[in-house]
Each structure stands twice: as structure tokens, then as C-alpha cells.
Amino acid sequence: MDSQPFDAVYWTSRYHAGRDGWDVGTITEPLRAYFAQLGAPDQRRILIPGAGRAYEAEWLHRHGWPHVFVADIAPEALEALQARVPDFPAEHLLLADFFALQGPFDLIVEQTFFCALDPGQRPAYARQCAQLLRPGGKLVGLLFDGPVGPGNEPPFGGSREEYRAYFAPYFDFVHFDTAHNSIKPRAGRELFICLQRKAS
Ligand SMILES: C[S@@+](CC[C@H](N)C(=O)[O-])C[C@H]1O[C@@H](n2cnc3c(N)ncnc32)[C@H](O)[C@@H]1O
């Protein structure tokens, strides 16, 4: 993990310095709306990688979803969730590198994690999502559509064509279009994606 340019030391120092502009302090509307339409909680195993302070995990937990897992390499992020939601299962807080996780999961939730990785890791991200999901499982969330950030550190943007190339070998594209309910600063600048893991 620490051989990567943006490692645990890097992310921990961003949290300590308060350089955490990605953190909007609550679940974002696209994910809230997606979760809400799933209906009653079931036994699905849900992974939120690069979860940060994990407001999505809090929402799911408070709405009765029993198998929600969060993973992050920065302890601050997980500690913040634990402090806000003391009854969140401690064994579901994974202080771990996404690329070292093991499945299976039914749903992976993406929000400002893909853009936090070095772009050279994107093919490995798509492959690891596919490996972590059961066939038929879904990768759902948001990807920046176009350039973001200064270019020398996260967040890193990208294009639909680029993203399609990473995911097409493993996923069917159920939904892949501009989000209609983004938070204001991201309006028109992010894609809502729902990708279904191919059977083989
Ligand atoms: C830009 S933040 C986004 C946090 C959260 N998803 C949000 O939207 O508030 C990226 C997060 O990914 C974590 N991270 C970076 N690389 C990681 C890796 N390889 N495995 C797990 N977490 C990682 C960082 O520590 C950081 O909390």
C-alpha cells in the first residue's frame, strides 16, 4: 500500500490538515435516492471502499441494513464513523487497503474513491471490484465526468470513454449517465453509474 503515491500517510495528513473538501458532511442525494428505492433491508453484503467518514454507511445502518462494511486506509475516517454511530459493528470497520480486500459482496458503493486513486490504478480498481462482487452483483455510485483537481494530486477526473474501457471487460452497463440529483457543486459534473458484474 505504501508503495503507492497516495498512501495512508498521505491521506492521514490530509485529514489532519483539514484538506478534506470532498467531505460534504452527509449522505449525498444520488446515493440516498438509490438506497431508498432498494426497499426493505435484506441480507446483501455492501462494501463502501475509501469510505472516508462514511455517511452512506451511517444511513444504511440506521435504516436497518445489517451487512454494511466500510474500508479505508486512514484510521481517522473510520474513527469518525465509530464516534457518530457507536453501535456500528466494529468488525465491519476495515482499516485496510481496498486492493487487499476479499469478497464476496453484492453491492459496492463508489463515491470520490475512484478519483482519489492514482490514475494508473484504475484498471486494477475495475478488476478488484469485479473480483470482490458475486456474479450479478453491482458497482453503484458516482464518477467525475471531466477534469477536476489540480492534476498533481487527488481528485483526478476522467472521461466516459476512459471509464468504459476499464469496466467493460467485467461489467454490463445498467446505467451510466449524468446524475440528475447531484449536490450543487457537482451538478452536471458527475456520472451516476450502475454496473452489473458479468456472470463470467
Ligand atoms: C477523497 S476521500 C473520499 C472519502 C469518502 N468516499 C467521501 O466521499 O467522503 C478518499 C478516501 O479514500 C481513502 N483511500 C485512499 N486510498 C485507499 C486505498 N487504497 N484503500 C482504501 N482506502 C483508500 C482515503 O483515506 C480517503 O478516506
Automatic annotation (TrEMBL):
The keyword Methyltransferase applies. Transmembrane segments: none annotated. One of its GO terms (molecular function) is S-adenosylmethionine-dependent methyltransferase activity. InterPro entries: SAM-dependent_MTases_sf (IPR029063), TPMT (IPR008854). One of its GO terms (biological process) is methylation. Keywords: Methyltransferase, Phosphoprotein, S-adenosyl-L-methionine, Transferase. Pfam families: TPMT (PF05724). PROSITE patterns: SAM_MT_TPMT (PS51585). PANTHER family: PTHR32183, THIOL METHYLTRANSFERASE 2-RELATED. This is Methyltransferase domain-containing protein. It comes from Hymenobacter busanensis.
